[in-house]
Each structure stands twice: as C-alpha cells, then as structure tokens.
Design brief:
- The protein is built from four helices and 16 strands.
- The chain has helices spanning 2-24, 32-35, 156-163, 271-276, and strands at 41-55, 75-89, 94-101, 114-124, 127-134, 170-181, 184-193, 209-219, 224-235, 238-252, 257-269, 290-306, 309-322, 332-343, 349-360, 372-382.
- The chain has a 16-stranded antiparallel β-barrel.
- The chain is globular.
C-alpha cells in the first residue's frame, strides 16, 4: 500500500508541471532559421586525455596503491579518457545522445565503456523529459563535463556518491526545467533511478532512488548560484538518503582577470560500503554508515590571447571526505594544485600540470587508503 502511494506521488510530481504548462504556454511559431534546419542533425564529439604520472611517496604506485613488498610502478604514461560521442536531433524537441569511453578497454570492461545513452524530449523551457542512461542532476559536478572542470578530475565525493547511485552515470528517468520566481531564475530536476550504476542488465533489487535538485540564481552579475539537493530510496529494503548544498560564483576582477569559486557539501548513506561488509562485522542498521564531504575549488583565470594561447588558469581544490564518519572514521584530505594553459576556445586544447596530495587519518597498508603525493601532466584535446 505504501509503495503504491509513493509511486502515485512521484507520478504527480512528474505530470503536474506538464499539465500546468499545457494550459498556459502558447505554441511559438518557428523562426526562419528554425524552419531552414533539416532534421535529423548530427554533432560528433570527441575527447582525449593523455597523462604522465609520477608518485613521490615511497612504496606507493601511480594509482595510489601501497605495496609493502615487490616492485612498485612509480612513473607511467596513461590514457585517462578517450571518448567518442554523437548528439542527434531528430526534431526541434527530440534528441538522442550517445557517449562511450574507449579508454575503458584497457581494463575489465564490465560495467564500463558505454556512458551516456539517453533520449530527451523538450516541451519548452519549463519541462523536458529524459530517459535512459545519463548523469542525474545532484550537485555542481554532475552538470559539468569532465573536460571543462577546473581540476584534473572530479572530487572524491562525486565518485563515492556515484557508487551509491546518486551521481555519475545512472539508469532511469528525469524531468528538468526552468522558471522564474520574481526576479530569481530557478532550475529544477527530478530523477528516478535504479541506483546501481551504468550498464547494469537490470536493477539489483526492486528499490528505486528518488532525487531532486534546485538551483537559485542569486546574482546574474557575479554568476552566484545556490544549489540544493535531496534524495531518498530503498536498497535491498533498507532506507537510504542523500543531501547536499553548493554555491558557485564568478567575479570579473579586471578586463582580463577573473576569479571563480565552487563550494560543495554532501552527506548520505554509504549503503555500498554497508553491503560490501560481512554481516558479522557490521551493525544491523545501515544508517550507522554515513559518508560526508566538502570541497573548495578557487580558480583564477587570466585571458592571454597571444598567438594560440587563450588563457592561463591557476586552481587548488581542497577536499575533506570521510566514507564512514560514524563508524571506523578515516578522514581523507586531498589537495589538488594545478596550472592550466588553454589553447583555442572552450578548452579545445589544454595542458595541465600539478599535484594530487592525499592525507589519511590512518594509513592502511597494501591498499589505496594510504598517503600519496602524485605529480601529473595532462594533455587534453576535445572536439
């Protein structure tokens, strides 16, 4: 009975905006430029991120794993990502998006390679429906491609919340849109997800994870946006939740120098950790296992426009993340200073250099939970 009632509530949340918009919005005539477009249209995308890695911590390899015995690989070249994508517009309202990461073929491909595989229908700016495999909106990083972020990679909390079904690539459905409340622009998203990652044959259980994100535009001049996230669901009949808040800003200091800042906090049930533990070594309550994290990402950008060099950027992300702060807490602090040279517009070409410095409250030998100092040089080219 409770499950039926919950499904009805979710259905109403998805359909109410549709009905209200249908009553108030008028169909806009196509402009000359729109009428000239021949559908379907195709846009090919590509990305390569090639790296040189060197570990400066004794007995720790370039992947961050500690080795108490044997040889340790402390310098290596690597292909982090080799993505190929296709965006197809079947009509003005309908699009299909496919994205694969060919670099995943260098290791076990189970659950990898295919990243985006979804269809999206946009009724108007107020509502669009998405179904398939996509990145649900649940924070800053979920809405930004990895090739234009201000650091080498996403945060630790992004990947851990992805393992728990809230972020990264998930299978499900979503409703998104935007509207104004007075002078404040508001973006929203509602998502229903299997919650067990990408490329899964089916849901791991009958439970689903429901999440929402709201973004309030507080200042257009300085691009100050406040994001609020929340989610709940069931995993193997256990109640799980996630919450988060974030803020972004971009200040133009001079004609060529700007400063942008991202701050993001997340907290939620680490049911992935809970169910990975032997029954005898965990508590009966999944709520005892909660993760939380916060990061600060300041970035200075100086426009150069000299020959092919477009800009110089300097950033340093600081993150605190604990995968289980209530039981067996082991806080991880990560510093990621980085210098980036941009060639062309929109990061078409990019050379980045910097460090990833990890510090744990307790080191665990022969695991990746170990202090590390990793130097990186990354070449990025995108289409």
């Amino acid at each position: 009975m409770k499950k039926t009632l919950l499904l009805r509530i979710i259905l109403v949340l998805f359909l109410m905006p549709l009905f209200s918009i249908a009553q108030t919005a008028q169909t806009q005539p196509a402009t000359d430029s729109e009428s000239d477009i021949k559908y379907p249209t195709f846009q090919f995308k590509g990305l390569i991120q090639a790296r040189y890695l060197e570990s400066f911590e004794d007995n720790v390899d370039v992947l961050g794993a500690h080795h108490s015995t044997g040889n340790v690989t402390q310098s290596s070249f690597d292909i982090k990502r080799m993505r190929v994508g296709l965006n197809t517009k079947l009509s003005k309202e309908t699009e299909v998006v496919i994205l694969v990461n060919l670099a995943d073929f260098k290791s076990d491909t189970k659950g990898k390679v295919l990243e985006n595989a979804y269809g999206k229908y946009t009724f108007n700016k107020y509502i669009a429906l998405t179904g398939g495999q996509f990145r649900p909106a649940f924070g800053i990083e979920e809405l930004v491609p990895v090739d234009i972020i201000k650091s080498f990679d996403f945060s630790n909390q992004y990947y851990e919340f992805g393992k728990n079904g809230w972020t990264s690539f998930q299978i499900g459905a979503s409703a998104t849109g935007a509207f104004d409340v007075g002078k404040i622009p508001v973006d929203y998203a509602f998502s229903i997800l299997n919650g067990n990652g990408k490329n899964a044959e089916m849901d791991k259980d009958n439970g689903k994870q429901f999440s929402t994100r709201w973004v309030l535009g507080l200042s257009k001049k300085h691009e100050i946006n406040l994001g609020l996230n929340g989610g709940f669901g069931k995993v193997f009949k256990e109640d799980v939740f996630a919450i988060g808040a974030d803020i972004t800003s971009d200040f133009k200091l001079t004609d060529k120098l700007s400063f942008d800042l991202q701050i993001e906090y997340k907290q939620g049930t680490n049911h992935n950790l809970y169910f990975s533990l032997p029954v005898a070594s965990r508590t009966p309550d999944v709520a005892d296992y909660q993760m939380r994290g916060i990061y600060f990402l300041p970035n200075f950008r100086y426009v150069v426009d000299y020959n092919k060099l477009t800009s110089l950027e300097i950033s340093c992300r600081y993150e605190r993340f604990d995968p289980s702060y209530k039981i067996d807490s082991n806080l991880r602090q990560t510093y990621t200073p980085m210098v980036s040279l941009e060639f062309g517009k929109a990061y078409r070409g990019r050379i980045e250099a910097g460090f990833q410095i990890d510090r744990f409250d307790q080191n665990v030998p022969d695991t990746t939970t170990y202090d590390n100092n990793l130097f990186l040089i990354q070449l990025q080219l995108r289409l």
